């Protein structure tokens, strides 16, 4: 007997088992926040959204774009749109109107739901049907008529998520119900999610569908706590107020939390209770040590991509590592991790990480050439360089970000880790820039918190790295270009140096 796996399975279970349990605490700082709602209320509002789309004549398979910071309404869209056979397109709320317009046009979205703070962006975009969340609620969330039934198809596209990190034009990643279902269940299983979970949405929900947590937490009847804007002190307050047990975040978010502890009165909340899942960039070893020691939170490293739904590997504390010194434990935890159940990881002959799993994307939307390239040989080509040792994956670099200087390959991540260990360095990105003598010059773009010279930072690296790996140039910056989840946008950082060249290697 075959029964299709669809994302509404998660909400259906929550309503069946935990109808009166609190489902979502919205961010009280939102322009028009919802009151806390139960799982039965969440289901009713999802049904209302689906019925509203029915009334508009939006068919099964049509795309519905949402441009919003984290909110209860956005979380409800995962079920009210995809759960009834339409395709949700969560859009990065930090994009310009031109970038949003491209996504809306490219996806063919018939409906655009927009946060009130982003109304001006929506006005410049234009869409067949546009609604402002919090202002047009009567047209979206209050219907009581039953939505049209969708029988369910696990191979149907559930979401199209546009990448933002490494290419000039974002690509639309088609993820099916099967992709999302298996990602959420596998991720939740590896994390040990259960009905007592209190999940804080520090991660933008638009990013790879919140890594699957809107589904996994719901299916187990956990509680969602919405955070609209990342702020270290506010994260600590939510952890204390709601008894948060789990969150997902980029290293930059945790750095903000650590900074906020300096002025936090009393004991840091969540010690020996909070699990924090980190991805987006390999964190410096020292940051991992501080999270474990100063916050008392469990550090879990994962690796994945939007194209893989995203969960591929996990590095989590093991009993065998407990006798080791703390810095060695942190080093091991900083690896990308061991493959999740049902995931196959291999290293191609050119050093690229390739993966096979049931989470891999169906295709890039309207981009068959890129789809074929990325899925050549029946595996997904990640574009990351890495190595496997003892069953654990270590990411060395984006292949395109490997710096070739004097005939030697240099991993920018390795250099970044050393520079980040300097007490005056807050943020760092290492890139290669054109150089007549060496081909590419190892260059560090650095944000500092204290006065330090270029010579001091180069000497710091030379003490810890082979001479050819140490940066030959330091550029001091006030900030570095990042995605919404804290991932460095190196293609933007490189433009200042490579913009007038036809080739991006030298």
Describe the protein in words.
The protein has 506 residues and is of the alpha/beta class. The chain has a domain at 402-498: 2-Layer Sandwich (GMP Synthetase, Chain A, domain 3), CATH 3.30.300. The protein is 30% helix and 25% strand. It is built from 15 helices and 25 strands. The chain has helices at 8-17, 39-56, 72-80, 97-107, 119-125, 177-191, 213-219, 232-242, 251-260, 285-295, 326-333, 368-374, 412-420, 454-462, 490-498, and strands at residues 22-25, 37-38, 63-67, 87-91, 111-114, 129-132, 157-162, 172-176, 198-201, 223-226, 246-249, 275-278, 298-304, 311-315, 338-339, 344-347, 352-356, 363-364, 380-389, 392-398, 403-405, 408-410, 425-435, 439-448, 473-476. The strands form 6 sheets. A 9-stranded mixed sheet has the order 2-1-10-9-11-12-13-14-15, sandwiched between helices. α7 (213-219) links the parallel β9 and β10 (223-226). α1 packs across α2 (39-56), α6 (177-191) packs across α7 and α8 (232-242) crosses α9. The protein is globular. The N and C termini lie far apart (58 Å). The model has no long low-confidence stretch (mean pLDDT 92).
Percent of sequence in beta strands: 15-25%
Q: Report the total helices.
A: 15
**Distance between the amino and carboxyl termini:** 58 Å
Number of strands: 25
Report the mean per-residue pLDDT as an integer.
Answer: 92
The rounded Rg comes to 23 Å
**Cross-sheet strand order for the largest sheet:** 2-1-10-9-11-12-13-14-15
What ranges have pLDDT less than 50 throughout 5 or more consecutive residues?
none
Structural class: alpha/beta
Give the helix proportion (percent range): 25-40%
Major sheet attributes: 9 strands, mixed
